[in-house]
Amino acid sequence: MSPLLSRTIASSRAKLNAYPAARAIFLPDSEPLRPGALLVQPALAATLEGIAAGGAEAFYKGAIAEQLARDVQARGGLITAHDMSRYPVAEMIPLCRVARLHRALGAAPMGARRCWRCCRWPRRRGSPARADSPIVPRPSPRSPA
User: Fold this and answer.
1) Among candidates 60, 10, 54, which has minimal Cα distance to 30?
2) Which whole-number Å values give the CA distances from 98 to 28, 124, 131, in the listed order?
3) Which of 62, 76, 92, 132 is buried most, with the most CB atoms less than 10 Å from its CB?
4) Which pLDDT score is estimated for 138?
């Protein structure tokens, strides 16, 4: 448990207390986990193992989707297992940024499939593009500058 996560849990105590499962994980004995504590999430581990074993199919069409839909509906949400099974999965290359010898990966923004053409590898004048350079958007020819 990092100091930052510990502080975030402490500042979110009221929200976490509203959900018994979250309270049990993040507020054992009604206190936020302290820095250095071991954060154990067996249900998350089981979910990730199921996805690793069964791929997208396990998440969108299996028991995980059914449980997710039940949990969402129990809190007033509208997602159903049928909705999950109809979701179009699109695998995309993550965004990558290298800074100070560290590589950070992040999810591509929503709608990135449609705007990927308007992105480019930035370069300094006269330097070749590198595969580890960050992706940044550039205006499309049809959009105003």
Assistant:
1) 10
2) 38, 15, 10
3) 62
4) 45
| Whole-number Å distance between alpha carbons of 60 and 79 | 12
* Residues whose CB falls within 8 Å of the CB of residue 21, separated by 6 or more in sequence, listed in order: 43
Mean pLDDT by 10 residues, the chain (145 residues): 95 95 94 94 94 92 94 94 90 77 76 47 46 46 48
Q: What is the 3-state secondary structure (H, E, C) of the chain?
A: CCHHHHHHHHHCHHHHHCCHHHHHHHCHHHCCCCCCCCCCCHHHHHHHHHHHHHHHHHHHHCHHHHHHHHHHHHCCCCCCHHHHHCCCCCCCCCEEEEECCEEEEECCCCCHHHHHHHEECCCCCCCCCCCCCCCEECCCCCCCC
Q: From residue 144, how far is each of 67, 82, 129, 137, 141 by CA, in Å?
A: 46, 41, 26, 14, 8
State residue 90's pLDDT score: 76
pLDDT of residue 6: 95
User: Which residue in 35, 28, 29 sits closest to 7, CA to CA?
Assistant: 35
Residue 113's pLDDT is 52
